[in-house]
Amino acid sequence: MRKLLAINILISLLVAVSSCKNEEDQINGMCINNDIFTHTTNDIIAYSKVFIDKNNRFSIELPKDWMYAENIIDSVKGVVASDTTINFHQNGIVNVCEYKTHFTSLREYFAAEIENLDTDNHFNIIQIGKARINGLESFWTLYEEVKDTTSNMIENHKSLIYYVQRNKSDTFYLLETTVYDIENYQEKLRELRPILETFKIRVEPNKN
């Protein structure tokens, strides 16, 4: 099964490279790929609870037995959740953050984020692409964060982040899944993806 998954991902990468010739198909010199993490089951959210942030801005369904904490700092609002019943190395983390920026274009904001990641030696961008999260347009990036002697990070990990814009405003959501099982990261990220598919932007009267 894993060999077949690896072959399918390799084929998708080869197709992407061959079709990535125009500037609109690239961001910062990297090809924009299709979403390779869509083929999942919904087992992880079969028994879930709906989390709604305190400002009623967004909601997401989280497994009932997961622990979560809401971040209510003015500059960064969101929630981080994980399954604390299993070994840390097998654990997955889901993080939703809301950012208010000076950008009003999803593509421009994503390009700026990719440029920042690409210039930081702690990050290795593996792939970028476009997708839809619960019907919402998004860009995504898969990257590895590498531990060094000056970092407080526990160990290397891989993260998949989807960037979603709030109603063509200057507010964006980062929907992130992080795994520490590097060898099986693709399988684990696919398992976590259905959680992100439950993300919804909530409507506030007379507001974006």
TrEMBL record:
Source domain of life: Bacteria
Protein name, UniProt field: PsbP C-terminal domain-containing protein
Organism: Carboxylicivirga mesophila
Lineage: Bacteria, Pseudomonadati, Bacteroidota, Bacteroidia, Marinilabiliales
